[in-house]
Amino acid sequence: MGSGMSQILPGLYIGNFKDARDAEQLSRNKVTHILSVHDTARPMLEGVKYLCIPAADSPSQNLTRHFKESIKFIHECRLQGEGCLVHCLAGVSRSVTLVIAYIMTVTDFGWEEALHTVRAGRSCANPNLGFQRQLQEFEKHEVRQYRQWLREEYGENPLRDAEEAKSILGLLGCLPCAGVPGVLAPASEDYKRRSQRGGALGAPPQDPAPLRPFQSPALAHSFPHLNLPSLGCYPATVYFSYVCKSMCVCVRVCIYTYQCMQCEPVYM
């Protein structure tokens, strides 16, 4: 599924079986490490470091036991400034589950917030119900120990993943905006009502929130479907945001609306 690998965080990608064999795409994204998780996982390309995990996309498949080796593999790659591709067959369930566990470990996110972070970059992400239950159990019983282990093993994380992920969720409207650099507080409810019924779109709200430059090099890569001229420092005012049914990110900027043209918006 998808049209190429998807960047989730700097140096971390999710893709499908085809992406894992696309040497040109791998080189373009500086991918030196590949984590393969599917029924017949095995190394396929020379000059690439592999972690291969044979696993079925079945609710009964135990992926939790592979979390630690996967987190270690991904983190060591990214600390070296290189790129890691995590893939299964479609890049929807198994690979997504391992990346969610990684994001939970390098941030303070629960599994649902981590899933939203992944979906921001890869809208088709959808772990099966068994994997979701395993992530819930990981959040309840193990993730704190994993975070402590990662700090003891590698020291403080220099990658600023927590800030990156919070910026992504703030843009999606999944986190409160206060205290998240570069993320805007929502506009007034009055302006939202006027905007939704098509009235006075050009009139400024009573509490406009000027868009500050994003301090996130990953955002422009994570949200290519926004099609903004310059996502990194777009000089406009964001009045409200929403996501469409397929989890594409959609943002209304001033009187212009940038949204996926193939799906119906659902207001948050």
From TrEMBL:
Gene3D superfamilies documented for this protein: Protein tyrosine phosphatase superfamily
Compartment(s) where it occurs, according to its Swiss-Prot or TrEMBL record: Cytoplasm
Catalytic reactions on record: O-phospho-L-threonyl-[protein] + H2O = L-threonyl-[protein] + phosphate; O-phospho-L-tyrosyl-[protein] + H2O = L-tyrosyl-[protein] + phosphate; O-phospho-L-seryl-[protein] + H2O = L-seryl-[protein] + phosphate
Keywords annotated in UniProt: Cytoplasm, Hydrolase, Protein phosphatase
CDD domains assigned to the protein according to its UniProt record, in alphabetical order: DUSP22
Domain spans labelled Tyrosine-protein phosphatase: 4-144
Listed SMART domains: DSPc (SM00195)
Membership in a protein family: Belongs to the protein-tyrosine phosphatase family. Non-receptor class dual specificity subfamily.
Protein name (Swiss-Prot/TrEMBL): Dual specificity phosphatase 22
Organism annotation: Rattus norvegicus (Rat)
Higher taxonomy: Eukaryota, Metazoa, Chordata, Craniata, Vertebrata
